Amino acid sequence: MLKFASLLTQPATKYALIVLALLFPLVASNEYQVYVMASAFIWAIAVYGLNIITGYCGQLNLAHGGFFALGAYTLGLLSADYGWSFWPAFAAALVMTAFIGLLVGVVSLRLKEHYFAIFTLCVGFIMYMLMDKWEELTHGPIGVRDIAAPHGFGLVDFTETTPFYYLVLAFLVFAMWFMGKLSRSLLGRTFMAIRNGDELAQSLGINLMRNKTMAFVLSTTYAGMAGALYAGMVRFIGPEDGNILHTFDMITYLLVGGIGTLSGPLVGTLGIVWLTQSLQFLEEYRMILFGPLLVILVIFFPRGIVGSFLGWLHRRAQSAALPAAKKKESRIQTGKGVENNA
Amino acid sequence: MNLFFQNIVNGLTLGSIYGLVALGLTLVYGILHIPNFAHGALYMVGAFMSYFFMVDLGAHYWIAMLGSAAVVAVLAVLCERLVFHPLRHSPPIHDKIAAIGILLFLEAVVQMLWGADFRRMTTPFMGIMNFDGLIIPQQRALIIVGAIVLVIALQWFLRKTMTGATIVAMAQSREGAFLVGIDANRVAMMTFAISGILAAFAATLYAPINLVYPAMGHVVIMKAFVIIILGGMGSIPGAIVGGMIIGFAEAFGGFYISSSYKDIIAFGLLVAILSFRPQGLFAKGAH
Lengths: 342, 287
Known about the structure:
The structure holds two protein chains of two kinds.
Chain A: H1 2-7, H2 11-27, H3 31-56, H4 64-81, H5 86-108, H6 113-133, H7 135-138, E1 151-152, E2 156-157, H8 161-184, H9 186-196, H10 198-203, H11 208-234, H12 244-257, H13 264-278, H14 286-300, H15 304-324
Antiparallel strand pairs in A: 1-2
Chain B: H1 2-32, H2 39-56, H3 61-84, H4 92-114, E1 128-131, E2 134-137, H5 138-160, H6 162-172, H7 174-179, H8 184-206, H9 217-231, H10 236-256, H11 262-276
Antiparallel strand pairs in B: 1-2
Helix pairs in contact in B: 1-5, 1-6, 1-8, 1-9, 1-10, 2-3, 2-4, 2-8, 2-9, 3-8, 5-6, 5-8, 6-8, 9-10, 9-11, 10-11
C-alpha cells in the first residue's frame, strides 16, 4: 500500500498523466466530455494562479475571479470591437492583467490579512460593476459576442473542440511546469517564508512588498491567461463571468485539492468539475453541498486531498524509518500544518 | 433646496441601514477577530424570514420583525458554535474561507426554498409624510428612527448591563477578560446573537423600500466592510460614523454624479482612502 502510494510522488507519474491527458479525446465517448475537460483545465490554470498568492504567499485574494474576467474581456473586446486577431489579443490580455495586477498589488499589499482580503473583495466587485455598467466599453449586461477563436496558422483549426483541448492542455502543462520551477526556486521559498511569518521573513532580509507584489502579479497573469483562453473557447462573455461566485468556486477547488501544494489545484478542479457534471441537476444548488464542504474541509482537513495524502505518506515513511535506525543526527522538523510540498 | 433635503433624508436612510449592518460586523470583529463574510447572508435570511412571517403566515410587520430577529440570532449562534468555535486556533485564512462556505450555503438554501425572483415586501407604513413640500416616505422615517432606537438600546446594553460589560471587556482585552473570569464562549455566542439581531432588523427595515432576493446581501455586506475599515475594525462609533459617510456619499454621489455608478462610489472611496491611509480613517495603527 505504502509502496503504491509513494509511486504517486515519483516523477514518472507526471509523464503518465500527460500521456493519459493526450489520449483522453480518443477515449472520450463524446465531444462534450472533451469540452468539459478543456474547461476544467482552464479553471485549473486560474486556480494555479490563486495558489501562488494564497497558497504559497498566504494572502487571500478575493479579486481573482475579477482578474479572470479582466483577461476574458480584454481578449473579447480587442477581437470583437477592434478587429484584433486572437494571438495579439491574447498577449494583450496577459499584459493587461499583469499591469492591473501590479497597480492593485502595490496598493492592496500594504494591507495585511483581513484588510487585504476585504480590499481585494472590493476590487473584484468594482471590476464586476464596471463590466456591468460601463456600457460604452463593455456592452454592459448584453456581453461581448463574436470573439475571435485562436487561429492555427493554417495548420490546425482551433474552433474544433479537440484541437482546442490540446491547446489548453499545452498551456496547462506549461503553467504547472512553471509552478514547479517556481516552488523550488528561491523566489518560491521566499513566498513560503512570507506565508509562514511576515515578520520573521522580514527579519531575514526579505523585501516583503517586492516579493508579495511579484506573487500577486504572477497570480493575476495566470488568471488573465485562463480568462483569455476561456473567452477563446466559449466565444461569448458577459458580466456574470466576473461574479464573485467564481472566485469562491476557485477557492473551493484549491481547498479541496490542497492549498499550497503543486498538484492540489489540478486534483481539486478536475474532481469538483466532474463531480458537478455528474450531478447536473444540482447545478443551481451545488452550493448547498459546497458550502458545508468548505466548512468541513477547513475544520477537519485544512490541507485538502493532496496535502492530507502527502502528510500521511510522510508520517508512514517516518514511522517505517524510525525503528530501523535510531537517527542521531539532528533533523529539521517540518512545522505543524505547513508542508513545504515541493 | 428641496432636492437637497431630499438627498439628506436618503443619505440618512442609507447610512442608518449600513450602520446597523456594520455594527454587527464590527462587534464580531472586535471580540473574535473574524471578518464574518457570512454576515450579508444573515442579513438576507433576515429579510426572507420577515417576508415569510408576513406573507405566508400573515403576521403583523412588528411581529414578523421580532420573529425574524429571533431566527437569525439562533442561526448566528449556530454559526459560531458549529464553525467559528472549532476554528478558533486555526490560521486566520481558515475563518474567512469557512465564512464564505456559510454564505454560499445559506444563499443556496434560500434560493432553493424561495427561488431567485425579486420580491416586494409591503408594510403598513407605505404612505408618505409631507412637511410643507419636503416629502418623507413613512418607511424611511421609520428606518431612521429605528436605527437611532437600536443604537441607543445597544449602547445601553453594553454600558449598563453586566452581560454587555463582559462583551466590552473582552473587546478591550481578551487576556484581561479571561483573568477576571469572563466566560469566552458565552460572550462569543452573545455577540453573534446581537450581530444577527441587528442584521435582521436592518433587513426588515430596509426591504420594503428595496427588494427581497437571495443575492440582496452582497452589496450591503461589502459596503459594511468598507464602513468598518473606514471606521476602524471593532470600533462602534466608527461603524456609525462610517455608515453615515457612505450613506451620504451614495445619496449625493448617486444624485449629482451618476445614479448607475452609485454602488461603486463606496468602493472607490475605500480604494482612494486606503491608498493614502492603509490603516483606515480613524484607526490608530490598528492594522
